[in-house]
Amino acid sequence: RKVRLVACGNTSIKGVHHNTTHAPTASPVSIRTLVAIATKLRKVIRSFDLEQCYLQAPIQQPCLLKDGARLLMYPPRELILKDKWGRPCVFQVTSNLYGLASGGADSFTHVDAHMVNEQHLAASKADPCLYAKRAENFSFHSAAKTDADTGKKRESPGAFLFHSLYTDDGVYFGDKKSEKLFEDTLSSKFKVRVNSVCQFILGCRLEQTLWDDKNQ
Questions:
Q1: Quick check: helix, strand or coil at residue 47?
Q2: Long-range Cβ contact pairs of 76-83 (< 8 A, separation 24 or more)
């Protein structure tokens, strides 16, 4: 059974705390761009799900806790505890919960710090949920082994990785070494479930066909 707690939503002020209560999601334009890049580079887009992502993020937003105040919540009636004097006990919330006013923003801040500081990805200025890492010799035109017009071999695009995040899910693709490093680093920080081939992105069905250089 799951329970959804909505706590301290009344502390958010309209027009003031919008950026501290939202859960950033990749835009459809970013998703279409990633699909186009993956198609150009002939790469398979993979997806992952961060399990219990909100619960791992510390409470940071000032609109929820002010001046060092503690967040206390009454437990459900089935879990009422009493002290030795018979007084009912309350729970002190020490980490984020699904439904807290700051849950979405704190979760994104937590994951974003991992992507930038530990994965060494650069976030897009146009979309904070879009990340990329490319080698200096990277080229969008060097995915094919041979040039269709000249028949000459093309250079390797080098190391690269593209990633897009939406709440606690994401998609990514890159060269094999970068993908393996991304997965290992992500698994060391979060409990993550990786899907070999992405089939759905934000409600859109994605069909992928592996490219065969020999048979085109």
A1: strand
A2: 76/3
Q: Which residues pair with 49 in a beta bridge?
A: 169, 193
Where does the chain have alpha helices with state H?
A: 28-41, 103-113, 176-189
pLDDT in tens, 61-117: 655 556 666 777 777 777 778 888 988 888 887 777 777 777 788 888 888 999 999
Encoded tokens for 97: 């919960």
**If you average pLDDT over every residue of the chain, what do you get?**
78
Strand order in the sheet with 160-166: 122-123, 130-134, 160-166, 169-174, 46-50, 192-195
First to last CA, the chain: 50
Task: Assign 3-class secondary structure to 54-68.
Answer: HHHCCCCCCCCCCCC
Nearest to 75 by CA among 62, 89, 85: 89
Q: How is residue 16 annotated by DSSP?
A: T
